[in-house]
Amino acid sequence: MKIVIIDYGAGNIQSIQFAIKRLGFEAILSNNPIEIQQADKVIFPGVGEASSAMKMLIESGLDKIIPTLKQPVLGICLGMQLMCKHSEEGNTNGLGIFDVNVVKFSNAVKVPQMGWNTIFNLKSKLFENIKENEFMYLVHSFYVPNTDLAIANTNYEVEYASALQKDNFYGVQFHPEKSGKWGEKILENFLNL
Amino acid sequence: MLTKRIIPCLDIKNGRTVKGVNFVNLIDAGNPVELAKKYSETGADELVFLDISATEERRSTLINLVREVAETINIPFTVGGGINSVEDVEILLKNGADKVSINSSAVKNPDLINKLAQKFGSQCIVVAIDAKRIDGIWKVHLVGGKQATDINLFDWVVEVANRGAGEILFTSMENDGTKDGFANEALNIISKLVNIPIIASGGAGNKQDFADAFSIGNADAALAASVFHFGEIEIPELKQFLKKQNIKVRI
C-alpha cells in the first residue's frame, strides 16, 4: 500500500509518519502532485495558521489537486479545516470539499481547547471498533459547527463536528497520531478503507 | 467535556533521566524512552521533558532523544530547557516534539514569544514561569528559581498570554519539593487573568493535592515528578480518585 502524507511545510508531520510506522506501514512525505495522485491513501496534515497554510497550498498548486483526488483522503486538524469552504482564521477560503465554514470559539471557554475530550455520534467505517465517548487529543481554537457531514461530535462550548466525511474525503479535528491506542486504531481503520 | 490533564515531568541530563526513579518491572529506569512509554501506557495525558544538561553535546543528544520518544509514544509531549531561539524550536518540532516550553529566554527576550507564536502557532508554545513571594508579592524567578527578578508574576502572566503563549506552566518555588500541595490561591488568580490553559506545578504530595489544584486552583492540568517516579502515586488510582470527586478525567 502506498501512503502519502502531503508535505507542504505545515508543522509537525513527523508524528503522523511515526504513528503509521507503529502500525506496520511506511508513509512517504511528498508535495509532488503525481506521487499524491498515485497513492492508495493520502493524509493531509496541518498545524499552524489557516491563511498562511492556504497560501502554501496555492503556491504549490496542491489546492487544485487535492479536491480531485479519488482515493481515501484524511485531513487532520488544520488539514480538515482547510478542506472546508472558508475559515475565520485569517479570513481565508479553503478547498471547499466540505460545504461548511470554520469559526472561532468564543471567550466563554479557554482558547485553544487543549487536551482530551470525547467523540460521540460516531457514524463512519473510520470509527469501526471505536466506542462512543472515546477520548481523543485535541488542540484547536477554531471549529466546524455541527453539520449533516459530521461523522463525530465533540462538546466544547457547543456541540460541534469533530469529524467530517463526504465521499472519499474524511476529516478529523483531533490528532489520531497523538490519541493513544484508540487514535492509532482510527488511523488503522483509515488505512483499511 | 474536556478533561483535566495529568502530566509527569522527566528531568533529563545528557540523555538520561535524573532524580531517582523507582519503577518496578522497568529494565532501565534511567532510560527516558522506557519511562515515557510506561507513563503513556498507564494513563498519563501528556509528558514534559525538561533538559538540564549543560554540556556541549546537549543539543544533539536532546534532538536524538526527542526523535526516539516521538517514534515510540502515542501521546503528546513538551520539551523544555535551554531553548533560546526560533532555530532551537524548529529543530525540536521537526523531530517530533508537540510543544516546546520556554522560560528564562522569554523573560530576557519577550519578543521571542511573539516570534515563536507567529511562526509555529500558539498551540505549541508553552511559557514556563517560576515564581515565589518576596515581601508578600509574587515575583518571577530565573535559573530554576535561583535568581529573583522585579517582574510581578500576574503582570507577566497577562503579558505572555497577550504575546501569544498557548499555555502557561506555573511553578511555585514555595511549594516545589514540599509535598504540601500546589499554590492554589495564585493558580486561581492566574486562571482568571488569562483565557489560555494553565498547568500547575510544584508541591504535589498526595492525591487530594491534585484534586485541589483543579477544584480550588482552577488549573487545567497538573504536573509532578517525584510522586510519580517513586510510585507514591499511581496515575490510574489518581484518576479514579479524581473521578469520584466529579473531576473530569480521561480513564
Protein architecture, described:
The complex is a heterodimer of chains A (193) and B (251). Chain A is α/β, with parallel strands linked by helices and 193 residues long. Chain A has a single domain, classed as 3-Layer(aba) Sandwich (Rossmann fold), CATH 3.40.50. Helices cover 24% and strands 35% of the residues of chain A. Chain A has six helices and 13 strands. In chain A, the strands form two sheets. In chain A, strands 1, 2, 3, 4, 5, 6, 7, 10, 11, 12 and 13 form an eleven-stranded mixed β-sheet that branches. In chain A, a hairpin with a 4-residue loop joins strand 5 and strand 6. Chain A is globular, with a radius of gyration of 15 Å. Chain A starts with a strand and ends with a helix. By secondary structure, chain B is of the alpha/beta class. Chain B has a single domain (5-245), classed as Alpha-Beta Barrel (TIM Barrel), CATH 3.20.20. In chain B, 37% of the residues lie in helices and 24% in strands. Chain B has helices at 32-41, 58-72, 86-94, 104-108, 111-120, 153-163, 184-193, 207-215, 226-229, 235-244; strands spanning 5-13, 16-17, 47-51, 77-80, 99-102, 125-134, 137-142, 147-152, 167-172, 198-201, 221-224. Chain B has an eight-stranded parallel barrel, surrounded by seven helices. In chain B, helix 2 links the parallel strand 3 (47-51) and strand 4. In chain B, helix 1 (32-41) packs parallel to helix 2. The longest helix of chain B has 15 residues, at 58-72. The radius of gyration of chain B is 17 Å and the shape is globular. In chain B, 52% of the residues are buried. Chains A and B meet through helix 1, strand 8, strand 9 and helix 6 of A and helix 2 of B. Chain A: This is Imidazole glycerol phosphate synthase subunit HisH. Chain A: It holds the Pfam family GATase. Chain A: Its EC number is 4.3.2.10, 3.5.1.2. Chain A: Heterodimer of HisH and HisF. Chain A: It comes from Flavobacterium terrigena. Chain B: It holds the Pfam family His_biosynth.
